[in-house]
Amino acid sequence: MEFDCQQFRQELQKRKEFVDGCLEQYLSDRDAFPPVIHQAMHYAVFNGGKRLRPILVFEGASLAGGDRSSVVPAACALEMIHSYSLVHDDLPAMDDDDFRRGKPTCHRVYGEANAILTGDALLTRAFAMLAQNRQIPGVDPLRVLRVIEEVSQAAGSRGMVGGQVLDLESEGKILDEPGLETIHRLKTGELFKAALRAGALLAGMDEAKLNCLDSYARGFGLAFQITDDILDVKGDEALIGKPVGSDEKNNKITYPRLYGLEGAWVLARENVEACLNSLQGFGESADFLRRLALFLLERDS
Amino acid sequence: MEFDCQQFRQELQKRKEFVDGCLEQYLSDRDAFPPVIHQAMHYAVFNGGKRLRPILVFEGASLAGGDRSSVVPAACALEMIHSYSLVHDDLPAMDDDDFRRGKPTCHRVYGEANAILTGDALLTRAFAMLAQNRQIPGVDPLRVLRVIEEVSQAAGSRGMVGGQVLDLESEGKILDEPGLETIHRLKTGELFKAALRAGALLAGMDEAKLNCLDSYARGFGLAFQITDDILDVKGDEALIGKPVGSDEKNNKITYPRLYGLEGAWVLARENVEACLNSLQGFGESADFLRRLALFLLERDS
How far does the CA of residue A114 sit from the closest CA of chain B (Å)? Predict the structure, then answer.
């Protein structure tokens, strides 16, 4: 398999635009009552994100032989959960961020109370959308319910929310490598895994293959976080949308701080290698996921 | 049907204790990792509440000929959603309350960031629990999915969250009766309705009867809110767990302010009457719901 980074960047952009179109459709009630909450939900979701989680949902379905159109609600739901988590993470009581990808954060535009409620509403809406997968012909309702349970676990107190708790607790503390890995596995890894599995489960993938996807998601989540930390040290502010060095300023333990920049690169490459190994049973149909893992080593935002 | 208020109070207490037992079982992971979030979730749920929403779930199932044990996860889920909403409503950016039913609020004990995350985690967990209803023998998975969608709508931007947005917007403003009714229908009425319907749907109730329950829930929600407002004027602080007159202090429009105390009583009685009328097709099996409506006129907390 060849990997043309520039071409893949275009492919990602195309997929991002497809996801944006789906989200526009599912958040079309911007003028619904009460107006402010629906406008704020729209603002929070259209935040210039890369849409990696919906892309993983679609790819999971495609690997299981399913059609993209059959998992659109699930893909949108995963992005809404990600968007809600960003709104709450940015709040003054949490990371207290004024900007995200160059735009004022939700609480700066709509006020703190409405930002809390906007996150709540997006999280709530996500589960209605997951349940809507039942209306898609051929989808097994028991699999939809399993997806709802898995997504809830990935996003909850033993997943993403738990990771944010640990992240806040860790500020200014000494952390070893297993401790850092646990934070990131919970805070970002579990939702990546749930996204990939959601698409695959809805399209009927068997357990053995689902296990391979778990391994892929694990490596992907870690490589994503390590390269994220590297970008914070040496990225281009205009591309990453926040000041370089913000992790150090916030006294956060990062992979480059634990391993040095070169050591962090080695670890990122090892995890991308693990992603490729996990896909050995899949053949050409998994080439997109292979390229997506390789792309992490080339990302600039 | 006779109504013995003292006897019914004992019946409610018995049911509350049953719900508490169910919740203990479903929140048994108080020592799970990370500890602080699981302890805070437990603290937030065991708040001395009356457990009206789970009681409505059980009663909906029983009216449809179902068994209480078959809707335990749904009943707990509804109470978790209610508990999360209280934690977020109490936050400094919202109502800024230090006490709830005589106990320090969640953010006073665990800090603001953890309180936001505790609400998020309870809301998230609630949907996993709703999905767990699929494991109960005889339950139709399509009905479980319908319940998830209805609960999500009742709790979201067009339901409870929307009501809280309106409530915050209304502070210090002039509000007419339809405006006040809309706030309360969204903020509390929709979730009462979803609770009663959830139990009934899971136990297989037909659409005609579900419509009757909608009418009941509408009257019940309004009578509940009106009597709540009345208690805030003339209740016993020791029983209601907050200072009398707090609505007036917070400059909130209430039913007694719009109608006077006697006018508010008349409206409460009319809504209880509407509850009784909605149950005409049900026979004796609905006596508990009839008594529950009548009890609102006697409540002291």
Answer: 7
